[in-house]
From TrEMBL, chain A:
Domain Palmitoyltransferase DHHC: 136-260
Catalytic activity: L-cysteinyl-[protein] + hexadecanoyl-CoA = S-hexadecanoyl-L-cysteinyl-[protein] + CoA
Name of this chain's protein: Palmitoyltransferase
Family per similarity comment: Belongs to the DHHC palmitoyltransferase family. ERF2/ZDHHC9 subfamily.
Organism superkingdom: Eukaryota
GO cellular component: endoplasmic reticulum membrane; Golgi membrane
Major site of localization recorded for this protein: endoplasmic reticulum
Comment field on protein domains: The DHHC domain is required for palmitoyltransferase activity.
Gene Ontology biological process terms in this record: protein targeting to membrane
Keyword Metal-binding: no
Segments traversing the membrane: 36-54, 60-83, 182-206, 226-250
Bilayer topology term: Multi-pass membrane protein
UniProtKB/TrEMBL annotation, chain B:
Localization, UniProt: Golgi apparatus membrane
Annotated organism of origin: Betta splendens
Entry keyword set: Membrane
Name of the coding gene: golga7bb
Membrane topology: Lipid-anchor
Protein's name in the database: Golgin subfamily A member 7B isoform X4
Amino acid sequence: MSAVMITRKVRKWEKLPGKNTFCCDGRVMMARQKGVFYLTLFLIVGTCSLFFAFECPYLAIHLSPAIPVFAALLFLFVMAMLLRTSFSDPGVLPRALPEEATFIEMEIEAANGNVPAGQRPPPRIRNVQINNQIVKLKYCYTCKIFRPPRASHCSICDNCVDRFDHHCPWVGNCVGKRNYRYFYLFTLSLSLLTIYIFTFDIVHVVMRSVDNGFLNTLKQTPGTVLEVLVCFFTLWSVVGLTGFHTYLISLNQTTNEDIKGSWSGKNRVQNPYSHKNIIKNCCEVLCGPAYPSVLDRRGLMQEDSPALSDAPPSSSSSSSVPQTTKTTAPLIPNEHTPDEAKPSIAAPPEKSPAPREEPAGAKVPPLASPETDAETSIAKDQTH
Amino acid sequence: MATEFHNLQELRHSASLVTKAFIQRDYSEGTVCRFQAKFPSELDNRIERTLLEETVKTLNGYYAEAEKVGGRSYLEGCLACATAYTVFFCMETRYEKVLRKISGFIQEQNEKIFAPRGLLLTDPIERGMRVLEISIFEDRASGSSSPSSSTSSAGGAR
């Protein structure tokens, strides 16, 4: 390893595992494939532009100027909700750090007891009782955690997401705990906008046809034809989707649970999260607290900086203790697979400032797995 | 086992990390953030049970306050919706306010209770709100602690 220390400030988002893309220095978080999202943007902005260009001048004069004003407000709301859904952290759960992963492994081994050689160990499941219902928590081999209830691993983004609903390519992001309400409001307002534009397109064509005839009207405002086409096909899908999500919200269920049939009612299985009251369920989902992101994207990593001072600005000072350098370092870029992750677990304890850490490196973690062998870890460190 | 008295500064500079104890989430009341009252065995002779239980109970109280679905959260939700959530660019959400309080509380607990016992509590938000991590340190400066630290690490590996 070279003696020159490069002290470029690295933000934590640059080292986050998972297949997300980040923009604006970590403020924006999206999935990797954004093509369909651009299509959504294009359709919405394009159709509304046509509406403002062709319909609004006529309707503002002949009916009311409130029509374009309301359309503009609705359009802005739709865009705000879309961007909020697409750009925010859906509720990604950070992966377990090495010590936590090792601790969980130890607990699993203790619970399983001695597995006879040649036999497959039992599946890693933890049972919890929620509202008199047994809920099974599954172990995630990628994130090395037992997933909290309602969390699920998104294979497209390669993250565990809390209250995972689904991965929506139209918004280019997962829909989870943090952005579900924005997603719902997006579909709802988009339905309203589509219905609004469709209705006023028809009104406009009818009003003009009375004066000029139907075919002439279409020739004068070709944009209308496009708008009607787009709105017609959008209506069915978006209004249907809004209806479906309204149903889910009233039952306090996620799309994921609905698809898997988790609470489908057989074997006396009931949704333990539902308050059994539609109003309460809606209020919880839509008016509940705004959950913070637990992914510290814009915090500074303690890379190459002499140990102790300079706590990352966004984390509390009580954690600026030496082990922060060890524990933030394991967020190795792009080493998702469990096999690749194993050697990287060994590297971090040695990666922190050399002089103090050597004896500590040998001690950490005492709940040792084979990979924390000192020689392997030093060798790994040299390759970094 | 002798308890070495440290302050937070000493802990950072001279102590070495032995192991970490984890207090897991308690999901018995649903998905609200709550930590188990179970006392980790690694801390048996490091801290009094009641002290840790008090800390966890207070933390649970803070999280319950943050996640309460009631009048205040409805108002916040409706106001935010009416402004297309742009109000969150200028205003801090209730949850964030409570998180700051929690961070201050943990700092205070570390200074007063945990650091003198060679322990350090990590804010759960830095672990994805999944666990309450308690780091257990041993003072490297005092040589007599080395045999006991190896027994404590053997104990930790139990």
